[in-house]
Amino acid sequence: MTITLTHPITALAAGVRTAVNKHADWSGTAELVAEQLRLHLPGPDVLTAEQRDGSPDSYRSHTLHVEPDGSFSIIGIVWRPGQITRIHDHVTWCVFGVIQGTEHEELYDADLRLVGTNDNRVGDVSGFAPPGDIHRVHNTTDATAISLHIYGTDVTRIGSTVRRYYD
């Protein structure tokens, strides 16, 4: 009997591809992709040991998969203790799942009023789509956090999924 081992990102990408190919609106796509991420959420070993170390300067992103047609990208993000994003929104839908540690997320309305917070822990999966996607992510713990993000675009082509930063 031959056992074929499939890389976790391969299985996740296949599930995301199925979800994206349903051609739902952005919110619907984010929900469908979140279902796939829940089914296929890998562990932190999806990144190399060196990648899991992160950077002392800022959170670090690692591109794990870009769909050939540019319809989505899968990114691993490593957050050392205290690292934080600026308040921002996105150019497309986004789904994320925590695979190590805890990420604190602050959610804002269009007037930049804080409307909620979440402490996303290992196994938590969430998604959103513009408008209504203004947030900031912060590692408020003393341990490294790692999350997988799936964006509805080819991030290697556009350079960033951030549409705007807010003061």
UniProtKB/TrEMBL annotation:
GO MF annotations for this entry? ferrous iron binding; oxidoreductase activity, acting on single donors with incorporation of molecular oxygen, incorporation of two atoms of oxygen
From the record, what ranges are coiled-coil?
Answer: none
Instruction: Name the positions where Fe cation binds.
Output: 88, 90, 135
Q: Name one Pfam family in it.
A: CDO_I
Record flagged with keyword Iron: yes
Q: Which domain of life is it from?
A: Bacteria
Where is the cross-link described as 3'-(S-cysteinyl)-tyrosine (Cys-Tyr)? 94-151
Entry keywords, A to Z:
Dioxygenase, Iron, Metal-binding, Oxidoreductase, Thioether bond
Iron among the record's keywords?
yes
Check the record and name the PANTHER family matching this protein.
CYSTEINE DIOXYGENASE, CYSTEINE DIOXYGENASE TYPE 1
What family does the Swiss-Prot or TrEMBL record give for this protein?
Belongs to the cysteine dioxygenase family.
Q: What is this protein called?
A: Putative metal-dependent enzyme (Double-stranded beta helix superfamily)
